[in-house]
Design brief:
This protein has about 90 residues and is of the alpha+beta class. About 25% of the residues lie in helices and about 25% in strands. The protein is globular and about 25 Å long.
Length: about 90
């Protein structure tokens, strides 16, 4: 992800981080506690970052859906191919 600086006033600037795309993961009911470990493992294997939602209730492993942010579609495809818990 790239970062750009926008000048505001003399001596000040605003940092903007280029955001990735959001993807919806639909999980199988089984092994809810293994989901985040699986995401971390696969993202490390393919050398990319998975950004999880900031709100705690949106990261609840008992929910069948999880919205993640990824840098590009190839990362989403890697997750879809390798995650055994994603439907």
């Amino acid at each position: 992800m790239s970062v750009c600086k926008l000048p505001l006033a003399p001596g000040q600037c605003l940092l903007l981080k280029e955001m990735g795309k959001k993807y919806l993961l639909y999980y199988a009911i089984a092994h809810a506690n293994f989901r985040y470990a699986e995401l971390q493992s696969i993202s490390e294997l393919f050398n990319f970052t998975v950004t999880l939602p900031e709100e705690k209730e949106e990261r609840d492993p008992n929910r069948p859906f999880l919205i993640v942010e990824l840098e590009d579609e190839s990362n989403a495809r890697s997750l879809a191919k390798r995650c055994i818990l994603v439907k």
